[in-house]
Amino acid sequence: MENKSPGKDVSEQDLIEKIPLVAKKINNQKTIVKVSEAVKFGGNNIPLIVGPNLVESREQIFQIAEYAKKLGANMLRGGCFKPLTFPYRSSKYFETGEEGLFWLKEAGDHFDLPTVTEAVSSEQLILVAKYSNMIQIGTRNMQNYPLLIDAAKTSLPIMLKRGYGASLRDWLGAAEYILYHGNSNVVLCERGVSVPHTHKSSSRYLLDLQVVPAAQELTHLPVITDPSHACFWASWVEPLTKASIAVGADGIMIETHPTPSEAAVDPLQALSEVELKRCIDSCSAVAKAVGRSLGSRI
Ligand code: PEP
Ligand code: MN
Known about the structure:
The chain is α/β, with parallel strands linked by helices. It is 37% helix and 13% strand. The chain has one domain (42-84, 94-289): TIM Barrel, CATH 3.20.20.70. An eight-stranded parallel β-sheet has the order 10-9-8-7-6-5-4-11. A two-stranded antiparallel sheet has the order 1-2. A two-stranded parallel sheet has the order 3-12. The model has no long low-confidence stretch (mean pLDDT 95). Strand 4 (48-51), helix 2 and strand 5 (75-77) form a beta-alpha-beta unit. The chain is globular and about 50 Å long. Phosphoenolpyruvate is lined by residues 53, 79, 83, 138-140, 161, 191, 229. Manganese (II) ion (MN) binds at residues 53, 229, 265-266.
């Protein structure tokens, strides 16, 4: 049968033939992706994932986990293997690898916060799966199909970030790979798309708020946003988090650092503890206004 709606659009035929596992079968179908008893994506609660871009040291991740927990986060993030833009490493621009994974797990266990961290390659999946409660597939790897298949096989919940140049159709196709390979615990994460007219030349991406309801119309999988990576500027994270909740996001991921200016990676987008508190306070009110709750705030 000829596809009557080629290109970016998701056609009725696509729903049946290309993404049958990801597509909704009935109007209000929603999958709950359970990371732990307290963290479930796709329900009334909006899980709040907080943490640094990079797990820099044991002290740093413990300090962050402590205030994140206190402020109402219910999950901890932190990169240990990073898809860094430049190949050079220094004492200011580095990755912590397996050691970082260990610290992240220790901090998560200590403060009862399930963790999520990125695997950049299939080789790292074994390690990431050993230490983490959820696997993050980054924007640059959304269409790395061998990685998606290997991630699916770990049976851990997977956060699939949208490729910054990917259509909704391509994103759902990538998710279909994971479901097809036996893992239906997929959370879709919008993290900003690359467009020529962002509001500052250094504002790298534009948070595509429209894709939240657009994706939810087509798929039963939860859809969350990562305003930090999208806007790149700490002061825009709070308004974009509010907007994400207002458009129906099923989860939020926010970057924080005790001293943002000293963050090894992406210092401009990280919120300090004080900024994070203000953000969570005001965003909890938005969640309440739409009949939901944010993180562990009730
Ligand atoms: C991250 O969350 O640390 C990250 C690298 O995200 P993205 O893949 O969206 O750039
Ligand atoms: Mn990052």
